[in-house]
TrEMBL record:
InterPro entries: ClpP/crotonase-like_dom_sf, Ech1-like, Enoyl-CoA_hydra/iso, Enoyl-CoA_hydra_C
Molecular function via GO: isomerase activity
Protein name per Swiss-Prot or TrEMBL: Crotonase/enoyl-CoA hydratase family protein
Pathway listed: Lipid metabolism; fatty acid beta-oxidation
Length: 284
């Protein structure tokens, strides 16, 4: 099972259908080193493909949530100086696309992903949390698009996803200046759902929200996620049409809905089938 694997950059706990991924490199400010970029998409894919959980919570140990990308990632991927310039730049482009995919997995995962953020959420960490379904933070948290301070443009998802979450003008200000956006402003802007006094109360609350999600029909929840994400990127007309297609295929009232009615009549919690597992080793 996913929970039995060992990772260098985080731990994974799966309890009562909730997967809790905990970044565990506090001395390095939970920076995204080379190991992270290999391990993170792998664990999300595993949880998704195995239907190992119905919700995912991501948090971290230490004072800061995540300081962003470890620049050693780029030094590790230095290309041969003898490569022709166009091919060398194509190689860099493909590296960026690969890094982007590492966070896109949060959107394509069938279960909701909730972020619990304390302290600094910097650079690449903003790219990551922007791809999650919901964000929660402590009162000492801050968000910073740091890339312009380094002479580069954020390239792993912040500039594409953040304008869907907060106002365009605020995104531009944050990106151009690299200033820190504190928790209270993030809440007011709609980036985070709630601000908590401390990390422990936040973790407790976010895990409780995840447990509430996990108690619902996993098929209904994944339908919500897919429809909301689709509506974000398409017109209302296209989204309504896609909703009709989804509902005509996935809505089976004789299953989950009838189970809810039976459970209410019997004064018990409903029991739902898990989403089917995905065997990536087989084509058919």
């Amino acid at each position: 099972m996913t929970s039995q694997k060992s990772y260098k950059t985080f731990t994974v706990e799966i309890t009562n259908k909730v997967a809790h991924i905990i970044f565990n490199r506090p001395d390095a400010l939970n920076s995204m080193n080379v190991d992270f970029w290999h391990e993170f998409p792998s664990v999300i894919h595993d949880i998704n493909n195995q239907s190992a959980a119905r919700a995912i919570v991501i948090s971290s140990k230490g004072k800061h949530f995540c300081s962003g990308m470890d620049l050693a990632v780029f030094s590790e991927n230095k290309s041969d100086t003898n490569i022709e310039l166009g091919r060398k730049q194509d190689q860099l482009r493909r590296l960026v696309l690969k890094l982007q995919d590492c966070f896109t997995v949060l959107e394509t995962a069938r279960m909701p992903v909730l972020m619990a953020i304390q302290g600094g959420c910097i650079g690449g960490a903003v790219d990551m949390v922007s791809a999650a379904d919901c964000r929660y933070c402590t009162s000492d948290a801050f968000f910073s698009i740091e890339e312009t301070k380094l002479g580069m443009t954020a390239d792993v998802g912040t500039l594409q996803r953040l304008p869907k979450l907060i106002s365009m003008g605020l995104v531009k200000e944050l990106a151009y200046t690299g200033r820190r956006m504190p928790a209270a402003e993030a809440k007011q802007a709609g980036l985070v759902n709630h601000v908590y006094d401390d990390q422990q109360s936040m973790i407790t609350a976010v895990l409780a929200i995840a447990a509430e999600i996990a108690a619902r029909s996993p098929l209904a929840v994944t339908g919500c996620k897919e429809m909301i994400n689709y509506a974000r990127d398409h017109s209302v007309s296209d989204s309504l049409n896609y909703m009709s297609v989804w509902q005509s295929g996935m809505f089976q009232p004789q299953n989950d809905m009838m189970e809810i009615f039976k459970a209410k009549a019997q004064n018990r919690a409903p029991e739902f089938e898990e989403l089917t597992q995905i065997d990536t080793t087989k084509i058919f």
